[in-house]
Amino acid sequence: MTTLGNTLWYAIFATVGNTAVGLLLAIAVDNKLPGKVTVFFRSIYFFPSLIGLVFVAIIWQYFFQTDAGVINYYLGKVGIKAVLLIAGALVFRMLGVFVCLLGASLRGKEKAFVMMAYTPKATVQAAIGGIPLSLGFACGDMVLTVAVLAIVLTAPLGAFVIDLSYKKLLDKR
Q: What is the DSSP string of 150-170?
């Protein structure tokens, strides 16, 4: 019951509260206020954007630390063979998407974009990666480690590739 209560509290107060505060700040900035007050409200309004960037920078720095970084930890645990396995799986996934698109009325550039856009999917790894470990299999830790590594590598890589390529490969019709 505590979990349900916490979820409801978050859904009601955090979501509605953030929206209400943002709306009030937007109204305050839009109104005719003295110069210093307007600058103050604009700073407060923009501050959450800066906080997000700072946290992302800290998290990425944590990921790539040489001695205790998450990515280096997982790579050290499973080795480069896991990265090659993930890369091979991505190639086969792209090949499968290509086969599915053979009958589609898309141009080559659009097919290439769809193939690249499908690479960051890690829902299966997230859903079943921990099952062998929970069942007590000897390989459970390795399977979970490769699943987490696949998620950590493919999600940002896919987002980066999509962001770089959509303007070049897709046209507005």
A: HHHHHHHHHHHHHHHHHHHH-
Query: How big is the CA angle at 36 (ends 33 and 39), to the nearest 5 degrees?
Result: 85
Looking at residue 104, what DSSP letter applies?
S
C-alpha distances (whole Å) from 167 to each of 61, 97, 151, 160, 171 are: 29, 21, 25, 13, 7
Instruction: Please state, in angstroms and rounded to a whole number, the distance separating the CA atoms of residues 13 and 48.
Output: 18
25 within 8 A of 45, measured Cβ to Cβ: yes
**Overall pTM surpassing 0.70 (yes/no):** no
Q: Is residue 145 within 8 Å of residue 78, measured between CB atoms? A: yes
For residue range 17-64, what is the model confidence (pLDDT) as tens digits? 777 777 777 776 666 777 777 777 777 777 776 676 677 777 777 777
Residue 12: alpha-carbon gap to chain centroid = 25
